[in-house]
UniProtKB/TrEMBL annotation:
Belongs to the protein kinase superfamily. AGC Ser/Thr protein kinase family. S6 kinase subfamily. Residues 24-282, 377-519 form the Protein kinase domain. The lineage of its organism: Eukaryota, Metazoa, Ecdysozoa, Arthropoda, Hexapoda. This is non-specific serine/threonine protein kinase. It catalyses: L-seryl-[protein] + ATP = O-phospho-L-seryl-[protein] + ADP + H(+); L-threonyl-[protein] + ATP = O-phospho-L-threonyl-[protein] + ADP + H(+). It comes from the Eukaryota. The active site is at D149, D494. One of its GO terms (biological process) is intracellular signal transduction. GO terms for molecular function: ATP binding; magnesium ion binding; protein serine/threonine kinase activity. InterPro entries: AGC-kinase_C (IPR000961), Kinase-like_dom_sf (IPR011009), Pkinase_C (IPR017892), Prot_kinase_dom (IPR000719), Protein_kinase_ATP_BS (IPR017441), Ribosomal_S6_kinase_II (IPR016239), RSK_N (IPR041906), Ser/Thr_kinase_AS (IPR008271). Keywords: ATP-binding, Kinase, Nucleotide-binding, Phosphoprotein, Repeat, Serine/threonine-protein kinase, Transferase.
Amino acid sequence: SLEHEYELKDVVKEGHDRADPTQFELLKVLGQGSFGKVFLVRKIVGLDSGTLYAMKVLKKATLKVRDRMRTKMERNILVDVRHPFIVRLHYAFQTEGKLYLILDFLRGGDLFSRLSKELMFTEEDVKFYLAELALALNHLHSLGIIYRDLKPENILLDEEGHISLTDFGLSKQPVEDQKAYSFCGTVEYMAPEVVTRKGHTFAADWWSFGVLMFEMLTGALPFQGANRKETMTQILKAKLGMPQHLSMEAQSLLRVLFKRNPANRLGAGPDGVNEIKNHSFFATIDWDKLLKKAIQPPFKPATQRADDAFYFDSEFTSKSPKDSPGVPPSANAHELFRGFSFIAPCLLEPESPHQTRIVEPLTRMPYSKATNINDEYEMREEIGRGSYSVCKLAVHRVSRIEYAVKIIDKSKRDCQEEVDILLRYREHPNIVTLRDVYEDDTQVFLVMELMRGGELLDRILRLKAFSEREAAAIMHTVISTVGYLHQHGVVHRDLKPSNLLYATETANPEALRLCDFGF
């Protein structure tokens, strides 16, 4: 029977008791797809009580045969795999109608999100991510698993910035002749032998590794046509245009990864991954230290407060987290969730309603709240105006705290980058605090702390000249804040007295806040 095909044995975390649904408190709905839901859960019993996990709940009745096989494959692969750069399956169990997979809950986002923000990485960044990825792929290969779906979305980052390879639904353990034949994955990353369905081996992953490297270094894909068919033709026949700004070592590695004959591809020879590790591009990598996570990642994701929910769609997070049957959405709905674990900050409930700064995201802009701003804030008089925006005073209806609301005309400016920067670095004492984000069809509303002391420009005009002591204190604040941004790869680009505001009326230089990253 079909049910038998989907037999799931329990998985129990080492040193822990067998799990069941009652041992997990449901905190948020994180995602929903064609055959189940994903929840943020907290374990409430056992040695790991209090630990946050991602719980994937699959309804047996709604799983098609292929989905059943695919989910069984995900589960089997995850059970076999134990590696620092691959997502962990902690528990698996089933009830009469459902299957449960309890997975890592990762807070760092995915490489794709970072790539889309930065367009391309430095070679040093790329070297680090590719080196960790090479170790993860080699581990899978050593278990007889071809990954086959390598793309930035499937590479998640943990809180420290190390990679975690995820989403094993397309991975395949080759049959006896050592070749796999089915056709799936994202076409732009496919090796020629996958496109032609001639059967592929582990070497297919090293081609995809090359595509990923090219994309990270250049911000573009090496083979991309106007449609799927044209892309496949390019993969099979097009000459690769090698960007000349890349180092000779990077160009050399790309050339040996993009060999259309898989037998000639780097990594496919008898030395396997050592061919990759010994390439001059990786000359500065200490592979032993890398495996121990002893090398500092190039980027540390922002660790948000416990009440933040930025990485999730409020379509899901606003729902009551009930593990119930219910009609599943259509099969072409969102993937159940991107990858096999979660791209997320901590989502615990706030301890006090007066300390919350929840920003629940919307489908339109990843971080905006689904509700109307007027439901939570009373809008008051205008307190400032710029070329693309108006600033108004607003009062929170419950706490009665005053805030400044920057209202941006969407037809004139895309404020996505400004919001990203403010969310990521708002914990810095001298960067303006963004509290909430709202959006309608024509405007974006950024709710920020009210700057009661006005602009530095006003103080300069009023005083005509500062004492050296005050000027030095102001410059110390500005330099340390700008230095902090530069360390994190952010350039303000519009540094001027009108973009430095005092949070308090005392004009204390330490109360200065840098704002307006939207130039």
